[in-house]
């Protein structure tokens, strides 16, 4: 990747090691020692806290709420099924339910990269608000499908409109923060969706008790209410969705320049470069992108498995439907707490691999307990561990990959590819937990455990490669990534 010169930062740069082993960046402009964007250094900390608080409040809650809607709308199929949709649409015949679950991921996988490449062309507010309103309309339409074929068509459209949403959110968030601020932010945005997802099954089931109102069955009301809420919030969100730092509308020019300068100082890509097909093909030849993708696939299989099947797994332990729904929420609350603690530790210690290792082992142990221990209480405890570990690996892998990327164009391509692999993880999760394996789902749990072992191997390969390149760079004082001379891989 060719090096670019940014007018925001000038002068020589002596090095900025992510792990604190190389001296901080030095800038030749002597005035920079006394002021930053015209702000005296003695006031910089207060100014920085105020600006970052404004960014956090504008970016994270709204994006977290919108992603919660996406997560709820894609995963409420299971509750609708047990609320009567399964009988009305005859989803239990053959593999109909698996087909309806899987077809969502086909357009979801295929359209993520094109959507991310066009994000700046159409504008973040226009594209993201269109996606939210469109999938809300599809969700609403699902309330009136007469048979399972139309339901499958709606699921395809749902996957198409949700495709560009999650990679765009990750892309946007990672451009606003320095490398070792980003995982806390990704975790904060993601834990909102975790908490919403944990209670969504209970909420959806309560909607089903409107059966008979307006002549609609209970399961239809799940889609009517959730679809209408999504459309409404999508319309409101258009006015508040954040853009990228260089073209934002909620910071003044002084604050914007300050943000761009701190990003430039951190990794040297504060301003965007154009995304072209040639660049995309060049980035796709980087083997590390595919390793990130495989790691994300391994992490999303248990996350999707719990999201789609936790109620069914709990009912297989002997609890009735109401108790299964109520018991599905606590593992998500525990996961939200665990995700943020691990993210804070990872940012604080400026390390990714060791904490990803711990969370992957947590997932592996949790699923082993759920799958192979006899007592229901212990199996339920395994869901806590498995859900916390897999949920934490999602922002962890995204932060790990974004920390080791320079340029907006490569960030756009890499984010889309990684999250596309998450869609493959969803397909695998919906097919390995088969109805004939109820109630223990041993084959599905065994595959999930094997994928966690693979994740550990892939993580080890990347870590050794990054460690080698960092060591070589320190010895030769040459750029490791073609960007800033002081840029080292995050381990």
From TrEMBL:
It is found in: Membrane. It is a multi-pass membrane protein. SUPFAM superfamilies: MFS general substrate transporter (SSF103473). The chain crosses the membrane at residues 59-77, 97-115, 127-145, 157-177, 189-207, 219-241, 289-317, 323-346, 353-373, 379-400, 412-433, 445-466. Residues 1-16 have a biased composition (Polar residues). Residues 59-471 form the Major facilitator superfamily (MFS) profile domain. The keyword rRNA-binding does not apply. This is Major facilitator superfamily domain-containing protein. Keywords: Membrane, Transmembrane, Transmembrane helix, Transport. It comes from the Eukaryota. Residues 1-22 are annotated as: Disordered. The lineage of its organism: Eukaryota, Fungi, Dikarya, Basidiomycota, Agaricomycotina.
């Amino acid at each position: 990747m060719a090096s670019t010169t940014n007018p925001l930062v000038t002068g020589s740069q002596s090095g900025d090691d992510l792990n604190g082993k190389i001296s901080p960046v030095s800038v030749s402009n002597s005035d920079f020692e006394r002021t930053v964007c015209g702000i005296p250094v003695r006031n910089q900390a207060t100014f920085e806290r105020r600006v970052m608080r404004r960014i956090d409040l504008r970016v994270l809650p709204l994006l977290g709420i919108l992603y919660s809607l996406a997560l709820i709308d894609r995963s409420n199929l299971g509750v609708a099924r047990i609320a009567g949709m399964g009988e009305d649409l005859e989803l239990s015949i053959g593999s109909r339910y698996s087909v309806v679950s899987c077809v969502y991921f086909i357009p979801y996988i295929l359209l993520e990269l094109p959507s991310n490449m066009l994000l700046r062309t159409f504008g973040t507010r226009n594209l993201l608000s269109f996606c939210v309103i469109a999938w809300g309309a599809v969700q609403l339409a699902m309330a009136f499908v007469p048979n399972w074929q139309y339901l499958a068509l709606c699921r395809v459209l749902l996957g198409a409109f949700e495709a560009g949403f999650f990679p765009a959110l990750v892309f946007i968030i990672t451009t606003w923060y320095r490398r070792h601020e980003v995982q806390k932010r990704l975790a904060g945005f993601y834990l909102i969706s975790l908490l919403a997802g944990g209670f969504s099954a209970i909420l959806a089931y309560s909607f089903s008790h409107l059966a008979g109102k307006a002549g609609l069955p209970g399961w239809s009301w799940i889609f009517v209410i959730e679809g209408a809420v999504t459309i409404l919030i999508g319309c409101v969100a258009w006015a508040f969705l954040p853009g990228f730092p260089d073209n934002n509308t909620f910071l003044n020019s002084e604050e914007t320049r300050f943000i761009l300068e701190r990003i430039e100082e951190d990794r040297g890509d504060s301003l965007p470069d154009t995304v072209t097909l040639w660049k995309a093909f060049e980035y796709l030849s980087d083997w590390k992108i595919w390793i990130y993708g495989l790691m994300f696939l391994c992490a999303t299989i248990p996350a999707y498995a719990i999201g789609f099947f936790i109620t069914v797994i709990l009912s297989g332990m002997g609890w009735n439907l109401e108790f299964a729904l109520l018991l599905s929420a606590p593992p998500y609350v525990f996961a939200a707490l665990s995700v943020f603690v691990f993210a804070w530790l990872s940012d604080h210690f400026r390390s990714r691999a060791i904490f990803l290792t711990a969370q992957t082992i947590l997932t592996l142990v949790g699923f082993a307990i759920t799958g192979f221990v006899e007592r229901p209480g212990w199996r339920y405890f395994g869901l806590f561990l498995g859900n916390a570990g897999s949920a934490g690996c999602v922002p962890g892998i995204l932060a790990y990959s974004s920390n080791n990327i320079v340029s907006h164009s490569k960030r756009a391509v890499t984010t889309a590819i990684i999250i596309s692999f998450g869609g493959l993880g969803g397909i695998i999760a919906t097919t390995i937990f088969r109805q004939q394996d109820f109630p223990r789902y041993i084959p599905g749990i065994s595959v999930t455990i094997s994928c966690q072992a693979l994740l550990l191997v892939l993580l080890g390969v990347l870590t050794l490669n990054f460690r080698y390149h960092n060591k070589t760079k320190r010895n030769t004082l040459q750029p490791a990534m073609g960007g800033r001379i002081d840029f080292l891989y995050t381990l």
